Amino acid sequence: MRILVLGGTGYLGRHVVGHLRGLPGARVSGAGRSPGAGVGARIDLGRDPLKRVTELIESVTPDAVVNCAGATGGDAVTLAEVNARGPALLAAALREAAPAARLVHLGSAAEYGPGTPGTKATESAVTCPLGPYGATKLAGTVAVTGSGLDAVVLRVGNPVGPGAPVTGLPGRITALLRTAGPDPSAVLRLGDLSAYRDFVDVRDVARAVGLAVTAAGPLPPVLNIGGGEAVRVRELVRRLAAAAGFAGRIEEDEGGSDRSARVSWQCSDITAAHTALGWRPEHTLDESLAALWAAAQAGPHDPGGDGTP
Predict the structure, then answer these.
(1) pLDDT digits over 83-113, tens only?
(2) What range(s) does the NAD-dependent epimerase/dehydratase domain occupy (predicted)?
(3) Please, what are the domains in the chain?
(4) CA distances to 63, 69, 95, 223 from 58, in Å
């Protein structure tokens, strides 16, 4: 089976490529904006013309394409180019070059916007993203689900685990803990930690991609891939600090933040992913945080790049 992975050098993309290469009979090709191991071609879905993307697909003749490319930061123009234009361009290229190939696109739980406390969002929940990131990711999802291709969007929660980039909270806290070390007088001064988020291990995300690529028959247009539990961010920080052996003090901004106040609860219902793919998360949050800390201790991690929904 020939599989083309776009955004293969990003946080999620690296894990996805590694997992797919372990599948029996899989021949995995990578392409992305950033140089890195396993990237055979440079491609920028946000800016390259349709012809260039079509030619790349024609050269690989894939049975499946996985789009891990995405941007979490930057101005609204950058987010729109990568998260909205990118998937639309890819779908158009696939219709020309490989209309029978399956497209697996990584979306984001941010597409839902604020959740109702105590309620898990199903795939049919109303989408009401509040910022440019969630809005552009939702636009990408619409482009994929409306493409007419054999396509599925995996709507990913908050990824955590080995190699988490400093652009996300788990990676940023890990970097601060490495700097603080075992000093009992160290103080971590953080923002509002009162929000609830649905954390999912990056290795479980990669496994879900593998199942989506190889599943027989059509899949639902959107599947939630999350931990299935709402965890207070404050609790995640406490557990990560414990895994790191942090002996200092954590100070939280009591004034709160605008985002935490507006999106105080996010949690995904992952029933449909189990029904369609036989998928459930295998790693507990404590296992994810232990792996994150162990990887950070082993050496510096990649700061991010494309592929972090």
Answers:
(1) 999 999 999 999 999 999 999 999 999 999 9
(2) 3-226
(3) 2-160+200-227+267-281 (3.40.50.720)
(4) 11, 19, 11, 28
